[in-house]
Write a structure and sequence with these properties.
Radius of gyration of chain A: 21 Å
Chains: A alpha/beta (489), B alpha+beta (502), C alpha+beta (100)
Helix content of chain A: 25-40%
Largest interface: A-C, 76 and 53 residues
Oligomer: heterotrimer
Number of helices of chain A: 17
Distance between the termini of chain A: 7 Å
Number of strands of chain B: 17
Strand content of chain A: 5-15%
Structural class of chain B: alpha+beta
Strand content of chain B: 15-25%
Number of strands of chain A: 11
Shape of chain A: globular
Strand order of the largest sheet of chain A: 1-3-2-4-6-5-10-11-9-7-8
Largest sheet of chain B: 9 strands, mixed
Strand order of the largest sheet of chain B: 3-7-8-11-1-12-13-14-15
Largest sheet of chain A: 11 strands, mixed
CATH architecture of the domain at 4-248 and 429-486 in chain A: Alpha-Beta Complex
CATH class of the domain at 4-248 and 429-486 in chain A: Alpha Beta
Order of helices and strands of chain A: HHEHEHEHEHEEHEHHEHHHHEHHEEHH
Mean pLDDT of chain A: 96
Chain lengths: 489, 502, 100
Amino acid sequence: MDSLEAQSAGLAAAEVSSVELVDAALARIEAADATLNAVVGVRGDAARAEAAAADARRSAGDRRSPLDGVPLLLKDNMVQQGEPTTCSSRILEGFVSPYDSTVVTRLREAGAIVLGRSNMDEFAMGSSTEHSVHGPAHNPWDTGRSCGGSSGGSAAAVSSGMLPFALGSDTGGSIRQPASFCGVTGLKPTYGRVSRFGLVAFASSLDQIGPIARTARECAWILDAIAGHDAKDSTSIPEPAPRVSDALDGDVSGLTIGMPREYFEEDGADPEVVSCVRAAISELERGGAKLIEVDLPHTPFVVSTYYLVATAEASSNLARYDGARYGRRAEGVSDVDEMYRRSRSEGFGDEVKRRILLGTYVLSAGYFDAYYRKAQQVRTLVRADFERAFAQCDVIAGPTYPEVAFELGSKQDDPINMYLSDVYTVSANLAGLPAISIPCGLVRDLPVGLQLQGRAMDEATLLRVADGFQGRTDHHDQRPPGHLGQAAR
Amino acid sequence: MSVDPMERYEAVIGLEVHTHLKTRSKLFSPAPVRYGDEPNHNVHPIDLGMPGVLPVLNEKVVGLAIRLGLATHSRVNQRSVFSRKNYFYPDLPKGYQISQYDEPIVSKGWIEIEVPTDSGQPAAGEKKRGETPKERRRIGITRAHLEEDAGKSIHDAAVAGADDTHIDLNRAGVPLLEIVSEPEMRSPEEASAYLRALRSILRYIDVSDADMEKGQFRCDANISLRRRGESRLGTRTEIKNLNSFASVEGAIKAEIVRQAEILDDGGEILQATMAYDPQRGRTRILRLKENADDYRYFDDPDLIPLIIQDEEIEAVRADMPELPDEKRVRFQDEYGLSAYDVGVLISSRPLAEFFEQTATACGSAKSAVNWITRDLMKELNERGVDVGELAITPEMLGALIRLVDEGRLTARSARDLFPELAEQGGDPEAIMRVRGLEAVSDPGVIDGSVEEVVGANAKAVESVRAGDDKALNFLMGQVMKATQGKADPTDVRRRLVERIRG
Amino acid sequence: MQRITRQDVERTADLARLSLTEAEIVALTRDLDRILEHADQLKDLDTESTVPTAHAIVLPTPQRADEPVPGMDVESALANAPLREGSAFVVPKVIEGEES
C-alpha cells in the first residue's frame, strides 16, 4: 500500500488510519534512508498529531480530498511556518520559517500531512542531488547512481515507497529528470498555475512547483489540491484552475502527438534510451493517437538560453543571503563587507558560486545586451517554436533526459556537459508550458522517462495522454530491485 | 578667494527628490506605513527579504503617481516596468531595490517656480530684500518613478556601539516616488524654490505629506560648474541625502565654492558622491565614481509590467484637486486679492480652503484675508502648527468677522478673543456674551461716559480745544476704559470731538 | 579566443560579494569561459526585431488594495537574527564610503 491511490482508497474505506500511514512512512524512512539520504528532516510528532486530527475529521464524515490523511514530503525549498528550510545550503543553517508557503496552506486545506523535507541540490541548482550540504542522495534502483536533481530526494523517496507522493520544484527539469531517473511520474505545471509564494526562488521566471507520485492520475489529484490563483504571487494565473482529475478518461484516440525532429536527432543521446522512448510513443499510437513530426528549430539554443536567463535571475535572488537577518553569518567578521564576503563564500557551494558568478557577469555593464538580453530574445523564438508546433499537435513527446541515471560523481568535474543534458527539459520552462515525465521502460535495468509537453494552461490534455499511456502499460508499477523496492511493497 | 564664484562660473543644478507616497501599507507588502515606532515593529516577511517571499503592487500608488504626472504636465506612460537595482547594503534586505529604470511611470513634464529676475546671474550691486523683482520660470521634470524605500542603518555609536550597526526595517518597502528634474536650475535659491514648489504640489494633490523631518521628502543634488559663456557641461558631483531646505541651499553653495576653488587652481573635478556637513558648511567626497556603480538593472521577474489604461488616467484627472497655480489665478480673478495675499493663502491647500470657507461664512473675502494673513498666520507661526491643528474652524472665524463687521464686537475685543478661539474653538457670539464683550452701541451709555470724562479732566479738555490731539487720545482712552473697551473707538472719538469742540 | 579573463572573474566576484581562493579563480575562469563559448552560438541568431521575453505569461498587472495588516510579531521577525539588540538587527559596522 505505497501508492497515493492505494492509501487514499484505504483511508476512504477505513481499512487504515492516517496515523498508521504516518507511522509506516516513518518506519520506511528509518529503514531506507540511511542508504538513500533522500530525507533531510521529519516532523514526526507534529505529523502524527495532524494525522490523528485528520482521522477524527474523516470519521466525522469530513473528507476534504483524495489527499486527506496522506503523508508527503516537501522539497526543502518550500517553507512551512515553524519548520527549518535549508535548500541544502550551509547558508540557511538554522533558519526556521516564520510563515507558510501557499502550497503548504493548500495541502493543509486538502487534509494532507507534511511529514518532512526532501534532499535537493543546493538552491535547486543541479541535476544530481550531489550538491547538498546534507550529502548526496542515492538512486533506489542503483545506489551507486544519482537519483537526478534537483528534486532528487522527492523522487527517490517516492520511488522507494517511503511516501506516496512529494512536491518538487522545476526550473529547468528539476521535477521531470529525477522522476525519469527514479521511475516515477513528475509533473511541471504551466508557469503561474501553482503559487510560488513560499518557494525559495532560484530563477523566478522559470520556477514552478509540481507533484511527484507514481501515476499521472495521482499527479492530477495533487495538482487539483495545490493549483489555482494566489493573490500573493503576482505571476499567478488569475483564474480558477480547472479540475484536471475530471479529464482523465483513459482515452487517447483522436489526439495528435508531435515528435520533434530535433529531439530524435540529438547526437549525445543514449540510443537505447531513444528507442525505448520511441517504443513508448508507438504505444500511444496503438491507443488511437496520431503521430506526426514537428519542428522545434531553436532546440540547439535552448540550453545556452536557459543558463543565461536562469543564472542572471539567480544571482539577484541569492543576494539576500548575506548573513544579516537570518541564516549563517561567518564568525569573527569585523565589518559589514567582510560579513558579506565571508558568509557568502563559506555558505554557498561550488555550483551555486559558479552560477552566481555567471549570472552576475551576464547582467553586468557591457555584457547585458550580448548575453542576457540576447537570451531573452531567443526565449521569444523558443516560445514561437512551440506555438507553431501546437498548431499541429496536442502534445509533444520525446525523452525526458538523454540518458539513464548516471553514476554519482561521474559528472562533477564537467559542469558544462551536465548542463547540455538538460536540452529536452529546459524548453518547457522557457516557454512556461506544462510537461510531465512518466516511466516508459528500463534500459540496462534503469528507468527511462517519456516526456510529454502540453499547451500552456492545458494540463488536462497532458495528463489525459499520460494517464492513457499508464492505462495501457505497467512501467509505473515497476519497483526498484532489492530491499529498497521490497520495502516499498 | 573672496569674490563670488558665481561671477565667473555658471552652476548647473539638477535635483532628485524622493518623496514618500501617502499610503497605509507598503509598496509591495501589506505591512503598515508608520513613523516613530520601535525598530522592526512594522514588518512583514516580505520586508525582511525572507526566503520565498514575493511582491504584490499596492494599487493606491498607481493613482498617486498618475496624479503627480498630471500635476506636473508630464506624460503618464501606458506601460512601465519594475526593475531590480542590485547592490549590497545592510538596510536593503533583498540585496536589490525594486525600482523603475528604463520605463518609468511618468516622464517629460515641468513645474513653475518663482525666482528673482536674473537669478543665477552675478548680482549687479546690492538690492534691498523684499524689493527683488520676481519672475516665473519653468523647470523640466525628466521623469518620476516608483520604488521602495530601504530600511534604516543606525551607525550612531551611542546607540549601536563603536563596532556595530543597527538595522531597522520599518521603513523598508515604504513607497517612494523619485522625481528627477532637468539640470535647469542655476543657483541654490532656484533649487530651493523648485523644492518648495514641488513640495507644495505634492501636498496639494495629497500624494505625499512630504514632511522633511520624518524623512518623507529627501533630496539629492547634482552640480557642475562651467565658465560663463561656455555651453559645454562640466563634470558633475552628486550630494546625497539633503533633508531640509536650508541644507539643500547650504550644500549647493558649499559645493559651488569647492568646485570653483578647484577650477580656479586649474584642477579637475572628479565625478564623485558627496556628503554635506551642515555644521561646518562644507561638502566632502564620500566616494569616487571611478569604478562606476554596476547595479545590473533587469526587469523584475516577480512583477508583471504595469499597464495603465487611458480611462484610469481620465478618472484620476476628473478627481484632481485644484493645483496651486490654478488657485493663484482664480484667487486673483475671483476675489481681487493682491499677489502677496494670494501667495500667503495658497502656501498650503488647507490654508487656501480655510480662507475660502471663511469668506463664504462671513460674506467678505477682504475681511477674511485680513484676519487670516494677520491674526491666523501669527497664531500658526507662533505655535508652529498647521491650520488643521487649531480648534478654530472657518465657520467660527466667519462668525467672529461678522460680529465685527456688524459692529456688535469691536475689532479690539475680537482680536483679544482670537487666541482663545484659535486654541479652544467655540461659538464667538456665545463667548462674547458670557464675557460681556458685546460692543456698547447705546448712544446714551457712551454719551454718559463722555460727560463723565469731560467733567473730570478739565485740563485735557482745554488742551483739546487748543488743538492737542494727544490730549484727545488721552480722553478717548478714558472713555474706552469706562466702557471696558466695548465701545467703537471711531464713534467715541466723534462724540468727544462734538462734545468739546462743539 | 578567451572570452573571460581572471580579472573579469575577480571583478564579478567582487560585485557578487564572493571571496574566491586562487584555485577557485582558476577553475571558474575556465568554466565560465567554456560556458560563454557555448553561449556565443546565440550570436548566430538574428534577433534584430525580436522582443525579449521577461515573463513566461502575459497578465493584467496584479494589484492589491491598500489595506495594511499588522506587522509580524517582533520576536518572530527577529527569531532568525544571527545577532540582535533590543528589536534591531545587529551587523558589524559599515566602513564609510560603502553607502549607496
